[in-house]
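Input/output pair, single chain:
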Amino acid sequence: MSRRGQIDAVIVGGGVVGAACALALAQQGQEVALVEGRAPARWSSEQPDLRVYAFAPDNAALLDSLGVWPSIVAARVQPYRRMRVWDAAGGAELAFDADALGRAQLGWILENALLVDRLWAALPAAGVRLHCPATVEEVEQDQDGVRLRLSDGSRLDARLAIAADGAASQLRRSAGIDVSDHDYDQRGVVAFIETAHAHEATAWQRFLPGGPLAVLPFVEGRSSIVWTLPTAEAERVIALSDEAFAGELQSALGGRLGAMQPVSARVAFPLRRQLARRFVEDRIVLVGDAAHVVHPLAGQGVNLGLRDVSALRELVIAAQARRVDWTAPHRLARWARVRRSESLAAAYTFEGINRVFSNDEMHLTLLRGHALGLAGKLPALANLLWRRASGL
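Output:
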C-alpha cells in the first residue's frame, strides 16, 4: 500500500528520455512528477539544433503511441532510405536499402530540441506534475519509497525515483551507484553543411584512421555531420576557416557528395563509454545516459534510452494486467538485468568497431574493408544487422 500523499514515480531530468518516461508512465494511469533544473528553450525552425539523432523505427512507434510523433513529423524530420558504409583503406561497401528490407524508410533524422519541445507540450494534458526550475537537494529512501527535497522548497514522496538526469547524474551518485568508464580521447565534431551533390536521403559513413565520418541527410538539401577525431585533431579542425574545413571534410568523405560548404557553427563534444554498475538501487532506477553512454558511431544513444522507457512501460502494463505492483524489487531487478545486458552488448560492440576501424594497423587494414563487403553481399546478414539497430 502507498503512503498517504505518495505518488507513483518522480523522474529527475527532462530531456528526451526523461520527458518520454514521464509521459509514458502518466498515460498508464500513474501519478508522476518531473523535476528539471531549466525549462527547455522552445524549438525554432529558424535555428536548427546541432544535436540530431538517427531515430529508429521502434522508437518512432513509441512516440506515436504517446501521441507526439505526428506533431514531430509535421514540424521537421528527414527520412533516410539508404545507408552506405565503407572504409577509407579500401574494400567493398556495406549498403542498406529500405526497398530491399521492405520498409518505407530505414529511420529518420531529427533534432533533439524538436523532440524535447513536443514531449514537453504533451506533459500537462497527461497530468504530469512539473517542478521546473528545480533540482534535487536531498534524497532519502526506504523499502517503501523515496523522498526528495527540491531546491524550490517542494518535498516529493514517491514509490520510485527515476534518474534521467544525464551522464553526470546527481541522483545516481545519491544512490551510491558507481560507473565503469573509458575515455576514447576522441571528440565528435558536429555541424550542418550543404553539398554539391544531393544527399539522396542516404546516411553516409566512412571509416578513417582517426575515427568515422558520418554525413546524415537533413531537410532543405542540408546534411548533418558527426566527425569522430582524436582530441587534438578535433581542436585543430574546429579552429579552421570554413573554406579549409570544407576542403578537409570533402577529402575525408572521399568526394562522394562533391564540394561542401559549412552553414552553421562547429561544436566538438568528448566521447566516452560509461556504464552504471547497477541500473536499480532499492527505489532508484536509472534510464538513458544516467545508465549508459555509448560511442555515437551507430547513433544508438537516444535509441537505447528510449528502449529503457519502452521496457519500463511494458513492465507497468504487464503488472497492471495481473494486478500486481510494478515497482516490486524483483520486477525492477528483472527489468534492470535485461536493460543492462542490452546496453553492455551495445557499448562494447560499438567500442570494438571503433577500435578495429579507427587505426592504421596493417593487418586490420587488410581485413576490415573485405569484412564490410562480405556483410553487404549477404542479404540475410545485412537484414539482421539493420533489424538489430532499428529495434525490430
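The domain at 7-41+49-70+112-180+272-354 is CATH 3.50.50.60 (FAD/NAD(P)-binding domain). The first helix runs from residue 16 to 26.
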